[in-house]
Amino acid sequence: IKFYSLNKLDYDVHSLPYSLRILVENVLRHLNNGIVTEEHLANIFERKGEIPFYPARIIMQDYTGVPAVVDLAAMRDYVAEKGGDPSKVNPEIPVELVIDHSLIVLYHGTKYSLEENMKAELNANKERYSLLKWASKAFKNFRVVPPGKGIIHQINVEHLARIVFYENGLAYPDTVLGTDSHTPMVNGIGVLGWGVGGIEAEAALLGQPYYMRVPEVVGVVLEGEPSPEVTPTDIVLTITEKLRKKGVVGKFLEYTGNLEALSAFDRAVIANMTPENGATVGYFPIDGETIRFIELTRGKKKAKLVEKYAKLNLMFREEEPKYDDVVKIDLSKVEPSVAGPTHPEDRIPLKKLKESFKPKKKVKIVLEGEHEVEDGIVALAAIASCTNTSNPFNILAAALLAKKAVERGLKVKPWVKTSFTPGSRVVVKYLENLGLMSYLEALGFHVNGFACASCIGNSGPLKREVEEAIGEGLVATAVISGNRNFRRRVNPLIEHTYLASPPLVVAFAIAGRINIDFEREPLAYDPNGKPVYLRDIMPTREEIKGLEKIVGEEMFKEIYSNLFESPYWDMIKANEGELFEWDDKSSYIRKPPFFELEPLKGDIKGARVLVFLGDRISTDDISPAGKIDPESPAGKYLRELGVDNLHTYGARRGNHEVMMRGTFARFKTIYWPTGEEMSVYDAAMRYKQEGIPVIIIAGKQYGVGSSRDWAAKGPALLGVKAVIAESFERIHRSNLVGMGILPLQFKDPSVRKELDGSEVYDIIGLDDLYPGKTVKVIARKPGKTVEFEAIVRLETPIEVEYIRHGGILKYAVSRLLS
Ligand code: F3S
Fold first, then answer.
1. Phi, psi of 41 (to 5 degrees)
2. How far apart are CA 260 and CA 749, in angstroms?
3. Most CB contacts within 10 A, which of 48, 319, 549, 704?
4. Residue 55 and residue 176 in contact, taking contact as beta carbons nearer than 8 Å
C-alpha cells in the first residue's frame, strides 16, 4: 500500500489523538498545492489557528441536497450560456444523496402502510425527485439513494462509508462532510466527519478546501461494564447529559478506555448524538471491533485493507494519546433512562419518571370503548430515527419484548399511534428471519417507511379523538427512539417528547401513559386479569446477544446490492440531457439567478440599511424554516401561482422566489427614502428599482444557530452587499463570504448605539481588500454624521477571491470557464 506516512514526521505523532492524525494525513496529502503549507501542519500539533481540509466525499439528504443540486444545475446553464462545456460542471469528489426526509406517516398499523405512505410521498414530491433523478444521470460523482431505502446515517455506517479509500494504488482515510447534523454517526466506525452548511458542502464538492479551526480534543474515558438491564440508548442518554454539563461545544471528542464493552453498532449510537452534546466530532478510533464490523458489512477483503493501512499508519488504536482535556464516564453506573420532555440532555432515570410528570387534567375519550385518560397519555410511540433503529441489540430487544407481550395477551392502548420506520432494510431482514416481525405487527408496529418520518416531524395525524382531546387542553406526549425532542418537533400538537430505547417505546405504547412507575405499577393486565410488569417481559441481555448472531454478512450484501435502484424510483420521470429542463410553473424548483449577481467591485457609496438588528439574530430569524404565512410576500406569491398547500419554507428551498420573499419574513423594516414601514422583501425590491445598494447592521453573534445556507443566499438575492455586525457566528460568516457578501465588524462595538439605521452609508477602502483590513465607514443623516472603522472579516486570501467573484459558485465557475 502506498500512503502519506505519519511515521516519517518530525512531530510526536504517537501522543496525538487519533482523530487529529487523520487531519495530519489530510494536510500531508495536499501539502504545497498553493493553499496548504507546513504552517498548517504545525497548527494541528499546537492546536492553534485554522487548516484547509479536503474531505474525501460529501453526503446529503433531500432537504439540504435539493438546493445544492439546483445550484449545480444553474451553474451548468451559466457555463453553457458563456460558451463553455456544461458537462464539465461536476462534483470533484464523490457525493451521495439519500432521500429520507420527505416521507410522512399518513398510514399506519396495517401491512399496506409502507406502500401507501411511499405512494403518497412520491406523488407529493415528484418535482423535487425529478430534479434529483436528472442529477444522478447528468453528473459524474453524484449518486442518489432513492426513497424507501433507509436513513442517510445508517446507510452511511452500513454501506457508503469507505473507511479507507484505495485508489490508483494510494490509500488514505475516508473523511466526510454531510449536510446534516448527525453526520458524526459514522465516527463510530473510525471515519472522521461532521455536519456542515449547504454552501460549505457545495464549495467542498467543487474542490475547494473547507476551512476549520484546529479543535481541542477531549478524551472521553469509558470505564466499567454496563449492567445487564441497560441498553445502548441508556448509555448515550447518560453520556449526553454528562458532556452537556461539562461543556464540549465545538470540540472533538475521542472515546477511549473500555471500548471493548461496546459493539460498533453501539458506538454508532453514541457517535450519532454528538450534536446533542455540542461537540463537532465523537470519534472512536479503529480497533479489532471496527475491523469485525467492516468484515460483517463490507467483507473480508475490505476489512483486511483497513486493518493493514490503519496499523501501518498509526491509526489503529494501540497507544494512549494525550488529550487536551479528559472526562470519565462509568458505564457500570448507567441505569435505564429516558430523556425529556423538551431537551435531549435532560435525562430522567426510569425509576424517577413518574414523579417528574404531574397530570392535572382528565378527559373521556371514546376509542374502542370509553376511557378516562389524563395528561401524559402517550399519543405517539415511534420506533424511529437514525440514532437507534439500526442497532440490532435495541431492535431485537424491542421485538422480543413485543413477542413476550403478545404471548401474555397484551395490547397497545387504543389512543396510541404506533409507528416503525427503520433506518435500514437490513433490520427487517433479520427480524423476518427470526420470525419476530409478526409480533411487532401484532402490536401495530408495522413498517411505515424506511425514512426519518416522526423524527423530522413527519409523524402524520394522531388518532382523531386524541387530537380533539388535545384541542380541549389535554397534554399528550410522544415517545420516540430518536435524538431530538424540542417542543413540537415530532408532531405539531405535542409539546412533550421523551427519547427512549426501542423496547421502552413498545412498553410505553402498551402502558399508554408516560407517568408510570415501572417498578411498582403493571404495564397492563393480561386477559385473565393478572398484572404484567415491565420486568416480566423485558428480555435479558443473554437472550438478545444470542439472537444478535443471526445478523450476517450475506444480509448486508443482499440488501445493499441494489441500493441505487427501486421500482418506485423508476416511476419518476426525469429528462436526460446535460442541462436541466426548468419548469416555469413549478412551485418547488426554480432556476436561481445567483450567477447574475453583481460582485462587489469597490467602495460602497450611498447605501441604505435594509434591516437594523440587535444581538443574537439566528439563521432561523434570517431565513425561517417553518410554515409560510398566506399574507406574507412568499404566501401571496404562491397563491398567485394557484398553490393551495403553501407548505413550509423548509420544503421549498429549491425555489428562490419563495426563499428570497421569506428572508427576514418575521421582521418589518422601514424604506428610509419615504419612511414607509413594509416587509423586508418589498423594501429590498424598492431599493433595487432605485439602484440603491443595501447593507445590514447587526449586534453580537450575528447568524447564531444552524448552518442554514439560505440565511446567506436570501440576503444576497435581496441585494445585500455587506453586513456590519459587532460579531459573527463562525459558519454564518463563511456562508456570507460564500455568497459574496462582505462581513465587516465594528472596530468599536459601542458605535452601533450611535446609529439607528436611517443613515446613508459610504464604505471606503474596499478596492484592495485583504483579511483583517480596517476600512472607513461614514454614516450621514440630517444633522449628524458618524465616522467609524470596521474590520474586514475575511480570513484567508481565497475568501478575498470569493468576494471579488461574487461568491464561491461564481469563483468555481470562473475557473471552469478559464
Ligand atoms: Fe433523519 Fe432524524 Fe436522523 S431527521 S437524519 S432520523 S436525526
1. -60, -45
2. 52
3. 704
4. yes
ipTM field: 0.99
What is the per-residue pLDDT for 20?
98
End-to-end CA distance of the chain: 36
Supply the residue whose CA is at minimum distance from atom 2 of ligand 1: 455
The chain-wide mean pLDDT, for the chain, equals 95
Count of alpha carbons within 13 Å of 8, Cβ hemisphere only? 5
Q: Cell 460602497 maps to which residue?
A: 604
pLDDT digits (tens, 9 = 90+) for 46-64: 999 889 999 999 999 998 8
∠ CA 388-198-717, rounded to 5°: 145
CA of 181 to the centre of ligand 1 (A): 9
Cα 105 to Cα 421: distance, rounded to the nearest angstrom: 9
* Residue 197 scores a pLDDT above 90: no
- Taken in order of first residue, the domains within the chain and their CATH numbers are 38-333 (3.30.499.10), 337-560 (3.30.499.10), 594-817 (3.20.19.10)
Q: How far, in Å, from the CA of 251 to the mean position of ligand 1?
A: 22
Query: What's the rounded Cα separation, in Å, for the pair 403 and 440?
Result: 7
The size of the chain, in residues, is 818
Taking the centre of ligand 1 as the mean of its atom positions, its distance from the CA of residue 384, in whole angstroms, is 9
Q: Look-up: residue for cell 421582521?
A: 667
- Per-residue pLDDT, averaged over 291-306, amounts to 98
Residue 7's pLDDT band (boundaries 50, 70, 90)?
very high
pLDDT at 316 over 90: yes
Closest Cα partner for 121 from 148, 98, 142? Answer: 148
Can you read off the three cell numbers belonging to residue 785? 454624521
Residue type, 45: F
How does pLDDT run across 436-462, given as a tens digit for each residue?
999 999 999 999 999 999 998 899 999
Does 705 have pLDDT greater than 80?
no
Cβ < 6 A, ligand 1 pocket: 100, 151-153, 180, 182, 385-386, 452, 455-456, 482-483
- Which residue shows C-alpha cell 504545525? 42
Predicted confidence (pLDDT) per residue in 140-177, tens digit:
999 999 999 999 999 999 999 999 999 999 999 999 99
pLDDT digits (tens, 9 = 90+) for 208-224: 899 888 999 999 999 99
Candidates 679, 707, 607; CA nearest to 179 is 707
Q: Which of 60, 180, 391 to mutate to test the pocket of ligand 1 (most atoms within 8 A of CB)?
A: 180
The pLDDT confidence band at residue 516, using thresholds 50, 70 and 90, is very high
Q: Which residue owns the Cα nearest ligand 1 atom 3? A: 386
Task: Please identify, by atom number, the ligand 1 atom nearest to the C-alpha of residue 423.
Answer: 6
Q: What is the 272 CA–ligand 1 centroid distance (Å)?
A: 10
Contact 711, 623 (CB under 8 A): yes
Peptide bond into 341 cis (omega under 30): yes
* Residue 489: predicted pLDDT: 85
What is the reported pLDDT for 798?
Answer: 85
| DSSP codes joined into one string, 150-162 | B-HHHHIIIII--
DSSP for residue 321: -
Cβ neighbors of 10 (< 8 A, separation 6 or more) are: none
- Report how far ligand 1's centroid is from the alpha carbon of 704 (Å): 21
Element (H, E) at 571: none
Contacts of 392 (CB under 8 A, 6+ apart): 265, 427, 430, 548, 551
DSSP H or E segment with residue 478: strand 476-480
CA 726/CA 773 separation, integer angstroms: 16
The most distant pair of C-alpha atoms in the chain lies apart, rounded to whole Å, by 88
Band of pLDDT at residue 496, cut at 50, 70 and 90: very high
Nearest-angstrom CA–CA distance, 63 and 635: 20
Question: Where is 125: in which H helix or E strand?
Answer: none
